[in-house]
Specification:
With about 180 residues, the protein is of the alpha+beta class. The chain is about 50% helix and about 20% strand.
């Protein structure tokens, strides 16, 4: 694998969003997942306040003393069914940057989808679609995420509904979230 392929994979396929803020508090870099987040939600005010404090202390002795260890923030964003985890890192060099890793605490993470797949005889791709449905993605978003057509998403959903014995997304979510032994610790 060449360096360009590796970088493209990191920028496009890694499930965590990555945002880099400069001292003007502007996003100077974001990967695909971060762009999706920014299209739907705003960065939490608490995150921006911490970033301002970091930049205010940048260049002064003791930046690491002011911000020892990792900075974590868990927040529910307006309009999101999920909690979001923000991990803040300080990148010091000639300039200081704040690097934020964004992870969604998704509904699908609460299920053992391997057990669901086996119980209902779902294919791996159908399970990929189910995961995204549970996380609230629309068909167009699922198609983009999995690099398939919207019609293929509809076909997979139709197969899943038949195998699970439901008629729609709500029925699917309700059935899967109430299954015994499918909820993870």
């Amino acid at each position: 694998m060449q360096m360009n392929e590796m970088m493209e994979f990191i920028l496009e396929k890694v499930p965590a969003g990555v945002i880099v803020l400069d001292k003007a508090m502007k996003v100077c870099f974001s990967n695909r997942q971060a762009n999706k987040f920014l299209q739907r939600y705003e960065l939490p005010a608490e995150l921006m306040n911490v970033s301002r404090r970091i930049f205010g202390a940048a260049g002064k002795a003791g930046l690491k003393d002011l911000f020892p260890g990792e900075i974590h923030l868990a927040k529910k964003c307006v309009g999101s069914p999920s909690n979001w985890l923000f991990r803040v890192h300080i990148l010091e060099g000639t300039d200081t940057f704040v690097v934020v890793f964004i992870l969604e605490e998704a509904v699908s993470d609460k299920l053992d989808l391997n057990k669901v797949r086996q119980r209902f005889g779902l294919t791996r791709r159908e399970t990929d679609v189910v995961r995204r449905v549970l996380d609230g993605l629309r068909n167009a978003e699922i198609a983009e995420d999995l690099d398939i057509t919207q019609q293929t998403v509809k076909d997979h959903l139709s197969n899943v509904y038949g195998k699970v014995g439901v008629e729609n997304r709500l029925g699917l979510a309700s059935t899967l979230l109430t299954l015994p032994d499918s909820i993870t610790g």
